[in-house]
Design goal:
Length: 162
Amino acid sequence: MTDFWLTDEEMDKEIEANRAVCQRLDDYDRDEDGWEEIWEGVFAILVEHMDEVREVFDLDPRKSELFSEFPDLLWAACDPQQPIIYSPVFREFGMPVFDGGPAMTTLRYDPWTGKALPPSVRDEFFEEAEKILGHEVGVLDEELDTLPDAYQRETWWIEKGL
C-alpha cells in the first residue's frame, strides 16, 4: 500500500460510509417527493462556491488574467453546473467538498490540458492582509472584507508580479 494519510482501517471505514451514501441515493426513487430538494441542495452548494467568480468576473471567464492560458478551466469555474471552483484572490482552482462549508480539493493541474496550474498565492495574501490590518487574520475573518478592492480580486497579485 502507498503512503497515505489514512490507515487501511480508516480507509475501510470511509469506503464503507461512502458505499452506504451511494446506496441510499441508488435506492431513492427520483420520482418521489424530495428528490428535487436534494438536487437543489447540491446545486446550491455549487453556486455558493462560485461567489468569488460571480462577484469578480460576473461569471465571464474572459475577465480573468489566466483565461488565455486556461480557458476551459475558467469556463467551467464560471458555470454553476460544473464542480470547478476558482478563487481569484488566492489563485487557486479546486473541486468542492460537499461538507456544507467552503472546503475544496485543490487542483494542481488543468484537467483539460494537463498543464501545471500557477502556484497558490494564499500565503502571500495573508502576509499582505496582516501588514494592512496590523494583526494576524484567518481565512474566515470578516475583517478581510475591509481590505482595499484590489485584494478582493486578482489585481493584488498581478500588481505585485506574483
